[in-house]
Each structure stands twice: as structure tokens, then as C-alpha cells.
Amino acid sequence: MATELLDLVTPETAGDPMGQRKWVRSSLRQLSHGLAQAGYAASAPTVSRLLKKHDYALRVNVKEKEAGTHHPDRDTQFHHIEAQKAAFAAAGYPIIRVDTKKKELIGDFKNAGQTWCQRPIEVNVHDFPSDALGRAVPDGIDDVQRNVGAVYVGASADTPEFAVMAIAHWWEDIGGSAYPQARQLLILADAGGSNGCRPRLWKEQLQRQLCDRLGLSVTVCHDPTGCSKWNPIEPRLFSHMSLNWAGQPLRTLETMLSYLRGTTTATGLRVTASLIEDVYETGKRVADAVMKTLQVEHDVVCPQWNYTIRPGLRGALAT
Prior knowledge:
Distance between the termini: 82 Å
Structural class: alpha/beta
Largest sheet: 9 strands, mixed
Number of strands: 11
Helix content: 25-40%
Order of helices and strands: HEEHHHEEEEHEHEHHEHEEH
């Protein structure tokens, strides 16, 4: 009967041809019915046991693939990032890695994870955005050379304008005093999203808010396309934030900020958190004429991912 069962599942087997993971599209009941038509009586539990002997099992989808992971310039870009980090570190200039964490609904909503308590915390049955007080946008900044993280929580949209404003706040609150002599900044970011390599508004705001207003020369290196899941800010900062509020509903923005500020690790990680109440509009566009005024210099190595923006005339006078 095992041979007949394999004959049934082989034509519709999927999985990794080089590994042990495989699955079938038919249900146990359908396979049981197919065996019965072939003259073999086997219940669904019996079919399950037979499949398990041949390395089949109930499985869910696994998010392991990411589009663009085989970009031909991937290794070149990672080597360039490491070279830039070494150069900035040797010069004593700040290096930050930025990214936006998953947006969070504020209100009586279930939060993943478990917490020690005498009775379960009661929350809403459904996570309807209409029942939320708002949606928080946590933008994280990891100071690569210091074990310090900063999170700026927006109560509006996740836009390039907000992403740059978070960095500007970080420089005014922390970076400027931590690196008083530095006039250059290295930013490491994903290739996509609000701080990706394509949005014009990201570059325009870097020019206006960091270069011209603060007098900084900003070098940006983006991770290769399709590598967002390997962003080091995830294990260095975001994972500890999630653990700190695991199982606790984020009922107010102040509750969320408190959990962020209380994030620590055995290695001494410290996290600051602030709220940005400004409203940022989505869909803003930057005209070609404006782009021509930006002081953007693309690197010879992977120019689509590496560039430096320098202060314009106003920024140069400010320094």
C-alpha cells in the first residue's frame, strides 16, 4: 500500500529537490479516497503515518527567499560598506544604521509574546485600525561605534521626510555632542523603503535638513537589493525592543515610549526614545529642477547605492 500511496503523491509533490522538505497538495482525506479506489482501505490517520515515514509532514510557508538576493554587485557592495565603515571609524566620524520598525497599532490590541502575570491581559478581539488611537511608526537609529540606540516614534506616515527628520533629531539630541568635532556622517540603510536609494525626497531632505541646516557632509551606503532581512539593526536593536514589550498591549504612545526607553541588554545597550508629533504627507514629489540643485556625488563603486551629499552655499556658511 505504501507503494501505491507514493504513486499517488509523487506527481503532485513539491519541495526542495536537494533537501528533505517536501509536501503534497492533496489532503489526507483525498489521498485516503484515492487509495480506496485502488483497492486499499486506509483511513486518514493511516495515510498520515505512511507519509511521515517518507519525510512528508504538515508544514506552513517559510519566509526564506528575498527577491534580488543574487544581484551581481552584492558582494562588491558589502565589501565597499565595510571599507567605508573602517575609514569613518579611523577618522573618528559617526556611523549610524537606520531603519523603520514594524508599525504598531496603539490601543487595546494583542501584542505577540508572553508575560508573567496572574491573569491574562484582556484586549480587543479584532485588530481593526478604526478602533486604534493611532498607528505608531518607530524609526530606529543604531550608533554602530557605541552601544546606544535611539528610536523616534512618529504618529503620522512613514515617509522619507520623516526618516530624515529622525536623523536630524538624533544629531541635535545625541550625535552632535557625542561627536563634537565631526562634520561628516556615514548612514547605512536598506535599498528600499522610506530611506531607500530610489526616493528623490530622501536625498532632497538629506540635503536640506542635514547638509544645509546642520552643515554635515553625509555619505550614504545602501545594502544591496533584497538584503533587508539581514539588516544588522534587527538583532542589535529591534529584537530587544520587541522582547521588552512582548505580551504587553501598547495602549498609549507614552506606554510605547516607556518600553523603548527601558530596553537594555546584558552587554549594556542603552536606548533613548522620543515622539515626533509632526504630520508628514505621503506622495510628495521632487521636481527635476530641484534635483539638479542637490550637491550629490555618486561613488564610482555601485553608484546606485553609494553617494555623498555635501552642504550647499548656505550649509557651508553655517559651518
